[in-house]
Amino acid sequence: MRALKVVFNVAISRNSSLIECYPFSSKRAEKSKFRIKNAARKKGEALNIDQLRKFIAFNAMPGTSLWEAKAIWLFSLYAQGMNFRDFCFLKKGNISESTLSYIRSKTKNSKTNEEKIRVPISSPLKEILNHQSITEDGYWRC
Predict the structure, then answer these.
(1) Positive or negative, the Cα torsion across 77, 82, 84, 89?
(2) Contact 14, 34 (CB under 8 A)
(3) d(CA 30, CA 95)
(4) Which is nearest to 140 in space by CA: 108, 95, 98?
(5) What is the pLDDT of residues 31-45, one digit of tens each?
(6) How many CA atoms lie within 13 A of 1 on its CB side?
(7) How is the chain split into domains, by residue range?
(8) pLDDT (average), residues 123-140
């Protein structure tokens, strides 16, 4: 959404009549403000242990979009909170018999924090990895 806001802001700076179509502001007075707000700094609520157990126990049919969504969420959980983008860029070479290792996309080109993250592969994580298919260019399908 942030990228879309930037596109709108640039277009409006070149043609002020487009401000009437600006979808990111509900108040007319705010339509003239062309800045992207920072995150709300409000943390979401975490699942409690019972909710997490119910989620894990939920039986989704393999191959369905519901199963895929559950698998990706659990993969992130088991991989110590791996970002979805990092999951999408995993290659077969990132995975050994016992360890998943990768460099975060967010810090990949920074000079200060380009260290490899190593995650031990637990049996639930291994099960998800076994069900993930690989694209022609060697990436895990997401």
Answers:
(1) negative
(2) no
(3) 49
(4) 95
(5) 555 555 555 566 778
(6) 9
(7) 2-32, 49-131
(8) 76
